[in-house]
Amino acid sequence: MDEITPEWLKARLGTDRGQKAALAEALGLSNDKISKMLGGTRKPQAQEIPTILAFFGETTATTDPELQAVWQKLTPSERLFLLNAAKAQISARESQPLIPPEDSE
Fold this sequence. Notes:
Elements: H1 6-13, H2 17-27, H3 31-39, H4 49-55, H5 65-73, H6 76-95
Helix pairs in contact: 2-3
């Protein structure tokens, strides 16, 4: 994939208006901004591209084949749920203070 074009987005979103709203939510954007992307008056920002690719189950990076196979079977809303859960897990892990292991005497 060289570029996320309006045609690329339209082909993946299909006609389900719920998908457009789910993509907007995943990106933290308004539906209007997604409409502008679909109409070609707004290009995806660099920081939005990984989220867009993940939303549609695509990637530019090499991923674990098993993970990719499972991801492809999920609906966009299931992908969004798991993506948000993973982000929350990472955030929680990073915000916890390191507790040294207790001596086992």
